[in-house]
Model the fold of this input.
Amino acid sequence: MPYCCRELQELDASHNALTELPDALQGLSTLQLLDLANNRLKTFSPSTLGTMKSLSELRLARNKLQQLQKDAFHGLPHLELLDLDSNELASMETNAVRSLPELKAVRLGRNKLVNVPSAAFTDLPQLQSAELQENRLTNIASNAFNDVPQLLLFNISHNQLATLNHAGLKSLKSLEVLDVSHNQVARVGSSSLDGMEWLVELKVKKQLHVPVVYDYHRTINTMF
Done:
């Protein structure tokens, strides 16, 4: 591989017609940003991505990805942003996104997810933002987020959740902003938000005038 390629730090391969990851990506150990948005990728090889040990931003939005398998992003110790917005993801496995010590934001909005299984997101000590809006979610396992202690923003708006008991909130004690607007949730009680001492903004579906009941000693900005 030429020296210039071995030292490459940013690669923009967006807006092409790629259907698979090029073999030329193998061994780009200094690459920090990889933009593959607006292609036709249906699958990708974790073994190819795993050679990019310096990668901090991975942009895969607006492709045709259909599934996230276990350890899909294994071997990316410096990844901070994972953008999978606007794909065709219909399923994800346990431990699909795990052991990424520097991951701060994951974007999974505008996909076809119905269910998020137990431990789908695991061992993400720096994760602050998770976006799953505009899917088809009816259930997020109570421990879908396992060992994710710093999550501040959780957007699950525009889904099909009937109750917050199925919204995977049990372990998310650090939340500051929770968006559950445009679901089928008819009531948000204090038990649903139990332990969320830092919650300052709660967004719920406007047109249903959802009654919000909470027993906190501070004001939560509730947006109907």
